[in-house]
Design goal:
With 207 residues, the protein is mostly helical. It contains 8 helices and no strands. The longest helix has 53 residues.
Length: 207
């Protein structure tokens, strides 16, 4: 077996993408640690239950991205700015539908399986799920953006994401507890979606 002339470049891309995804994942999962330090274990349990259905939605990112990659690989044309804008709007619409579904399902699921936590968690269902849904649609959009922009842009976006995360999640959680955490995650993931959409629009074919 001989190495392809593209082997070095491919491995470099894999390394960059793996590192940036790890960076984003570590930030996303550190909410329990930050909340635990600020409010204690009971608050972590409450927030975990409030975000449970939203996190299930975010787990769909990997299989859905696999489908997107398959379609994008077969597509030989250029992705235009109009196509990126339409895709971002479609994702946003699907995200709103998923958010409504998470909210309704959380009301039923948590009351059935976590009745002791329901009273404390109920008030956070909507906003906590919204943060998770924006995380999900941002990652889906990122897969499409890699079709028009090099992997270094994903690294830049995730570095900005971590910076915004640190600047909002830590101070807001320390000041306002679970509400601060939920609002900060919504802001952080919402901005990630907006930044990813902007990068895709700027790098796409101008048509």
């Amino acid at each position: 077996l001989t190495r392809s002339e593209h082997f070095g470049g491919t491995m470099k891309s894999v390394g960059v993408l793996s590192a940036t995804n790890l960076l984003s994942a570590v930030a996303q999962q550190s909410d329990k640690i930050i909340l635990g330090l600020a409010m204690g274990g009971e608050a972590v349990t409450t927030f975990y239950v409030a975000t449970l259905l939203g996190k299930v939605i975010s787990l769909l990112t990997t299989p859905l991205n696999g489908v997107l990659i398959g379609y994008l690989t077969k597509y030989e044309g250029k992705l235009t700015r109009k196509m990126i804008a339409v895709f971002a709007l479609v994702l946003l619409g699907l995200g709103l539908i998923a958010l409504l579904g998470c909210f309704i399902a959380s009301e039923i699921f948590v009351k059935l399986f976590y009745p002791d936590v329901y009273a404390d968690a109920e008030q956070y269902f909507f906003i906590a799920s919204a943060g998770q849904v924006f995380y999900f649609i941002s990652n889906c959009l990122m897969t499409v953006i890699l079709r028009v922009a090099s992997e270094k842009y994903q690294m830049y976006i995730n570095m900005i994401y971590v910076a915004i995360y640190a600047a909002t999640v830590i101070p807001l959680t320390m000041s306002f507890g679970i509400w601060g955490m939920a609002i900060a995650l919504l802001i952080t993931n919402g901005l990630k979606f907006a930044i990813t959409s902007l990068v895709g629009f700027m790098k796409a074919d101008k048509q």
